[in-house]
Amino acid sequence: MSQRCRVVAAYGHEAGSGRDLSDAAGLDVSVVSSGRELFRRVTELRLGGEEVCVVPMTLGRNPELVADTARTLRALPEGERRGTLLAAPFGTSQHLVSWLRAAAGRIPDDSALLLTAPCGDPFDDAELYRVASLVRRHGRHTLVEVAFTGGDPDPAEGVRRCRRLGASRVTLLPAAFVPPEVPDDAGPRVHRHGPLLSPAALARVLAERVADARRRWSEHGDDGFATGLGFAADHGYAHTHAPGEGHDHGHGPPGGHAHAHAHAHQHPPAPGAGRVNRSTA
Questions:
Q1: Number of Cβ within a 10 Å radius of residue 269
Q2: Within a 10 A sphere around the Cβ of 132, how many other Cβ atoms?
Q3: Is 22 a member of any domain?
């Protein structure tokens, strides 16, 4: 690839409408929703002769965004696929815990933390509860709760829950690319903190993901599509097979052969799942 390529940030529910992410990313990054908008933007850039690197903008709660982005890029005509790379996701759940802990360190210890994010599917939302538990376990705040914009509990109910649990002060802390809105009826001593990452930190992490993708291509000829397609394989309901009940779906990297077998098992992690990239911004 050439010395420079265009960066496209593909977002899902963690960025809401994408407006705040677009403002933070700046003019050098194309911020688009996954699916058709991503397809159109990459096609436009490739037809204009520009090379492209796409970064799935998840903070670890939405692995399906990575797989969906890979499917979209695989659907490009062959001429547009050449010169297009799929980077590793912007962040993992481990990154999210680290970033939230860093932000929590700037919030008074006597405040309850209410982690807020746009709602996703049940598994995405359940992941935020796990993240909140780790933030509490490894932090100084004794009360860490969760609320979902457009979901249950919403931020207003989250604040009420913190009050019922004895909090005299509540701080809304974004666990997403969208800053929280303080509910109208929140009452006194309810504040918001954020954004989770400054524009400079966002730019630094994006640059690292793009550099890693370009290095992977130059050293191994890997465009990232195959890894991305398998990224959500462990997301959702796990399943086993009863004795004597085989199946004919494949395991392991996409493109492998399907096989039937008749023993109970759980699927191994997808390639790249759980991988921690180096930046903690």
A1: 11
A2: 20
A3: yes
3-class DSSP assignment, residue 262? coil
Domain residues for 58? 6-92+198-229
Question: Which H helix or E strand runs over 8?
Answer: strand 6-11
88 and 16 within one domain: yes
pTM: 0.83
Cβ-count burial of 52 within 10 angstroms (0-12 exposed, 13-18 middle, 19+ buried)?
A: buried
* Eight-class DSSP state of 223: -
Beta-carbon count within 10 A of 210 CB? 20
Q: Residues with Cβ < 8 Å from 269, sequence gap 6 or more?
A: 233, 234
Question: pLDDT by residue (tens digit) across 102-156?
Answer: 999 999 999 999 999 999 999 999 999 999 999 999 999 999 999 999 999 999 9
- Same domain for 117 and 173, yes or no, is yes
Give yes or no for residue 192 having a pLDDT over 60.
yes
Measure CA 37 to chain center.
Answer: 18
Give the dihedral of Cα atoms 40, 45, 51, 54; nearest 10 deg: -40
Closest to 254 measured CA to CA, from 277, 222, 276:
222
| Three-state secondary structure readout of 10-40 | EECHHHCCCHHHHHHHCCCEEEEECCHHHHH
Length of the chain, please? 281
Kindly state whether residues 22 and 139 are assigned to the same domain: no
